[in-house]
Structure formats: structure tokens, C-alpha cells
Design brief:
- This protein is of the alpha+beta class.
- The chain is 55% helix and 12% strand.
- It contains 7 helices and 4 strands, in the order H-H-H-H-E-E-E-H-E-H-H.
- Strands 1-2-3-4 form a 4-stranded mixed beta sheet.
- A hairpin with a 2-residue loop joins strand 2 and strand 3.
- Helix 1 packs across helix 3 and helix 2 runs antiparallel to helix 3.
- It is elongated.
- The chain starts with a helix and ends in a 26-residue tail after the last helix.
Length: 228
Amino acid sequence: MARKENSENPGRLKQIALTYKMTKRTDRWIGLILLGVGLVTFGVLLGIGFLIGHPIYLGILGFLLAFLATAIVFGRRAEKSAFGQMEGQPGAAAAVLDRIGRGWVVTPAVAMNRNQDVIHRVVGKPGVVLVAEGNPNRVRGLLNAEKKKMSRLLGDVPVHPIVVGNDEGQVPLRKLRQTIVKKPRVLPGGQVTEVNDRLRAVGDLMSNMPMPKGPMPKGMKMPKAPPR
């Protein structure tokens, strides 16, 4: 048991160190910011401790809160940095959707074209969410075609189109998950299962072709879609 715990701790520390290095690539002040957050939090609590006559107790509390505050700030800035590095890469939206959580069925690349514009599908209690990533001028047509297809297959089931991007009317990659999970839940669990079964029976464009989870390497070409 002791050997197992010792082997896990270096792995966690190595992962934290790797995350810090990746974050520092785009957030050059991350080290000073974390140091400042920790020192200010500890200093404030310690100062209050001296004022009320309990510097030891407040010092211990300040140390714990400083560690917690530093961890929270680090997590948020690391997440922001990660999204910043992923933005614009093919497959970035699929990587976010893969971690959307329980209660959702994600099918990557249900439609695509030769220009690497891709539509991903997410099914849950809000209905069907179609997530498009690619050139906004081209992906709109692809998205509209897939939305019409879903409407023909599913009838009154709500279909929500989303285009990933930073322009007006688009959803930034860092807000994609939040945008989806906050949509009104209108379908009961049984109907969600029925929708998934119906879509699975029809089949998808990529049903027989494995897709990588995460951003695709630069220079890699997407396969051409078969003619419909």
C-alpha cells in the first residue's frame, strides 16, 4: 500500500509540473500571480490574527486558505491557457465535448467536408445539440443541412445549432460545455434513449471510421466525405 501511494504521488506532482509548464507558455506571469495570491491571502489572515490576539491560529488558517486560493487561481488560469492553445485546431470542440459529463451522448464528426469543417452531435435532455467547428462561412451550410436532417428524423425534438468561434453569434471554445449544459431540459430520460436509438439505427457519416479524441496534428488532412 505504501509503495502504491508513493508511486502515485510523483505522478500527480509530475502532472502538476507539466500543467504549469504548458500554462506558462501563454501566461508568462503565472508564477508571480500565484505567489502574490498566496502571500496576500496569508498576510491578510496573519494580520487579522495579530489584531485579535491569535496570530498562530489565524496564521495556520491563512496558510491553508492561501494554498486553496492559489490552487483555484492556478486551475482557472491553466484551463484558460489550455483552451487558448486549442482554439483554431481541428478537433478542439470534440476534445471539450468528450469531457462534457454524464447524461450526454456525444458522437463526433457526424458530418464534414473536405475543408475540415466538422459537425459534432450531442444528445441529452435539452434535445440534440449540433456543434460546428471550422470556417464560419462554409460551416453554416453544413450545419443547416444537418439540422434539417435531424428535424426530418426526430420530428418535434429540439435541435440546437452551435458554431464554435469568437465572432458575433458564435460560442467560444472555453464556454462550449457551459452553454450546452445550461440549455433547458425538455426531454424525459426515456425519450433521450429513444432518440439515441433512432440515430444509432440510421447511422452516421463516421460510424465505421475512428476519430481521434482531441485536436488533430497540424497538416493532417480529413478524409473526404462519401457522396450522398
